[in-house]
Amino acid sequence: MADTQQFFKEQSFINGEWVKADSGKTFAVDNPADGKIVANVADMGAPETTRAVEAAYAAFPAWKKMLAKDRAKILRKWSDLIVANADALAALLTMEQGKPLAEAKGEIINGAGFIEWYADEGRRVYGDTIPPMKDSARIIITKEPIGVVGAITPWNFPSSMITRKLGPALGAGCTAVLKPAAETPLSALALAVLAEQAGMPKGVFNIVTGKDAAAIGQVLTTHPHVKKISFTGSTEVGKVLLAQAASTVKKSSMELGGNAPFIVFNSADLDKAVEGAVASKYRNAGQTCICANRIYVQDGIFEEFTRRLTEKVKAMKIGPGNEAGVSIGPLINQKGFDKARRHIDDAVAKGAALVYGGGQNAAGGLFMTPAILTGMTPDMMMTQEETFGPVAGLYRFADEAEVIALANDTRFGLASYFYTNELGQAFRVAEALEYGMVAVNESLLSYEAAPFGGVKESGLGREGSKYGLEDYLSIKYTLVGGI
Ligand code: NAP
């Protein structure tokens, strides 16, 4: 059993100190597998957030001035420490979030990859020179870290959604104040323990924990010292934060909700498509922003695909994430469970057939038996909203033009997937899908060197890759005359 104790913190991390809330108040964090309280974490609000912003602001000039290669050493060490302690961090993550241990460890390693990548990428912030308008002038373009970053993250990836922001922010030379989700603050605080060990200077990376997200968010989106807001979470909250950030015209990155189409054409390799559908739909019990939400299967293979998918799903083991062989853990809370259930009931009421699952699993509490529905139609909730649960809705389609129109008929535009063995179709469909990400004959997209993000109401900006760094930099045009 990994030793999680050394990473177990219940206080916030501001200016390099572990601190309690001014009021002394705490909030409870529970284990969704059994509902037991696992921690009581500092419940902070606006005054503590303001202090964290001031600490990040004070730390910014020295961090900005530090040589990129010296910043890189700290970030690389941080990443190495995360990887070295992946088992303990994964155990902590499963305890507060519920996902199976293997998935939790995968998240930790994937998350460390973002810090490692940006340790290096931060050394490649290149500028430009531009042919001037007159002989006696020179035009020089430089890129500078934007300043203090306010970061707000969700519970479904309690570690990697943080490193995906802090890697580029700190690599670019910005400092940051993070507000993790109230459901999962422990993984965030554990990252700070290791940042300290890696030699991160005081104030460069601060964490404010608290239940009053609106109060903390208000400070992060309106304080004049915060120059950028980076949010991952629901589209609804993202819209609120964007509106608030407008008051001081902050640069904003929004990684919001999705409603991914997963299309299987007649020519597809069926085994691969079924395997991909299971991985994309049921990972983290269906609670990822890029989970397949609408599975479109072409006429010729619909029955066979349904049969094979059902067979696979029946074989999945449901239970607490720390039990061996489990592939589906609990949903995060009752609200999440009820929403998934509502989507099933709505579909059935409108004519869908519940082929398998959908009820409370024998494991009890927040465990749902993964569900499969057929006969899905556009008027159902699942078609328009993000389900965020282990529910696969299967839609039948006849041809390419029809399925492209159906797939694009949504306000979301994050991830999309399709399986085909026709080369021409692969290009046509990839180009026609109105999504920030398209996976062809693949189901797992996240990788530090690739740009993750959406179009339409799924967000603004990209995380990961060289493009992700740009979101934390501002461009300066210097004109030098009299030469
Ligand atoms: P959420 O309810 O929007 O919460 C996300 C974060 O925002 C949490 O830290 C939450 O704090 C905070 N928050 C809530 N209301 C706020 C407010 N008024 N002002 C400031 N902060 C506020 O989303 P969630 O349920 O945690 O996460 C699931 C959502 O995230 C899904 O829609 C999913 O698609 C999306 N997501 C997107 C991506 C992506 O890359 N596009 C990745 C992962 C998840 P509390 O926890 O304290 O409420």
Q: Can you offer a commentary on this structure?
A:
The protein is α/β, with parallel strands linked by helices. It folds into two domains: 5-256 and 457-479, 3-Layer(aba) Sandwich (Aldehyde Dehydrogenase, Chain A, domain 1); 260-447, Aldehyde Dehydrogenase, Chain A, domain 2 (3-Layer(aba) Sandwich), CATH 3.40.309.10. The protein has helices at 46-65, 68-84, 86-97, 101-121, 160-172, 185-197, 213-222, 235-245, 270-282, 302-314, 334-349, 381-384, 400-408, 423-432, 465-470, and strands at 12-14, 17-19, 26-30, 37-42, 128-130, 138-145, 148-152, 175-179, 205-207, 226-232, 251-255, 260-264, 292-298, 353-356, 371-374, 391-397, 415-419, 437-440, 459-460, 473-480. The chain has a seven-stranded mixed sheet, sandwiched between helices. The chain is globular. The N and C termini lie far apart (68 Å). Bound molecules: NADP nicotinamide-adenine-dinucleotide phosphate.
